[in-house]
Amino acid sequence: MRYEGMIYRPPSEAYSLIVQVTIGCSQNRCIFCSMFKEKRFRIRKVEEVLEDLQDARNKYRYVEKIFLADGDALICKMTDLEAILHFIKDQFPECKQVTLYGSPRSILMKQQEDLDKLRELGISMIYMGLESGNDEVLTYMKKGVTSQEMIEAAQKVKQAKIRLSVTAISGLGGRRLWKEHAKDTGLVLSQMKPDYIGLLTLMIEEDLPLADKIRSGEFELLNPYDILIETKEMLKYMDCPDCIFRSNHASNYVNLRGTLNQDKEAMINLLDEAIKGNVHLKSEWMRGF
Ligand code: SF4
């Protein structure tokens, strides 16, 4: 197996075979994200990907899940994705799940029939980063897509009967836009109707453009209690029946987990207790571990 640079994968792919189909992220301009900054985006040759898969087949007797990395593997042309998925079907008959990151743009660039075909060939879930449902926040953060495009992309994925996992980020509106960020993210998620929602909390690395804006005072970070209030507000607007909600990432101050909408009240109650000081918040130095 050949890996280039740091490899990122969703927490739920901890035990998956990871194969890089792309290197880096096709957007790579978001001012809060450091994940793929050291990589120049490119799509790997399909022959190289198949060689890596063959190498993995020679090494591992049982592979239940495969994650196609890096950011936005869905951007590859259909013929390449089809070749990779056919190879997986032939060589890994025991594999139960193939997943990847898909940017909203890549999803929208695919025809509905393409997404249907990808599901038939084994793609069972697409991970998508919403980050915020508020367009002012998305523009400021240079996400490169609008909330409406996010909704349309999600609807295409759902129509193809591919499961959808979406991440959003607490604190991304800063002090100025926290209310709008909370409300619009809740409302947009309600329209996207994902199967899974992962809510992270903003963490900043020193060399990011957003860190410069914080140093200059242009962007004000929320404190941990503001984050809890914002999360509570966001949850209030979420109407996503049967969606698994997780906010138990290393970046979060309080762990939340439940199924929407039935566990919404319980999660809001836990946040209320935390806001009152009755729940231990993760220390700043522990975040990220
Ligand atoms: S947030 Fe997502 S789209 Fe933006 S640079 Fe990071 S990986 Fe790429």
UniProtKB/TrEMBL annotation:
<dbReference type="InterPro" id="IPR006638">
    <property type="entry name" value="Elp3/MiaA/NifB-like_rSAM"/>
</dbReference>
<dbReference type="InterPro" id="IPR013785">
    <property type="entry name" value="Aldolase_TIM"/>
</dbReference>
<dbReference type="Pfam" id="PF04055">
    <property type="entry name" value="Radical_SAM"/>
</dbReference>
<dbReference type="GO" id="GO:0003824">
    <property type="term" value="F:catalytic activity"/>
</dbReference>
<keyword id="KW-0411">Iron-sulfur</keyword>
<keyword id="KW-0949">S-adenosyl-L-methionine</keyword>
<dbReference type="InterPro" id="IPR007197">
    <property type="entry name" value="rSAM"/>
</dbReference>
<dbReference type="InterPro" id="IPR058240">
    <property type="entry name" value="rSAM_sf"/>
</dbReference>
<feature type="domain" description="Radical SAM core">
    <location>
        <begin position="9"/>
        <end position="241"/>
    </location>
</feature>
<keyword id="KW-0479">Metal-binding</keyword>
<dbReference type="GO" id="GO:0051536">
    <property type="term" value="F:iron-sulfur cluster binding"/>
</dbReference>
<protein>
    <submittedName>
        <fullName>B12-binding domain-containing radical SAM protein</fullName>
    </submittedName>
</protein>
<dbReference type="InterPro" id="IPR051198">
    <property type="entry name" value="BchE-like"/>
</dbReference>
<keyword id="KW-0408">Iron</keyword>
<dbReference type="GO" id="GO:0046872">
    <property type="term" value="F:metal ion binding"/>
</dbReference>
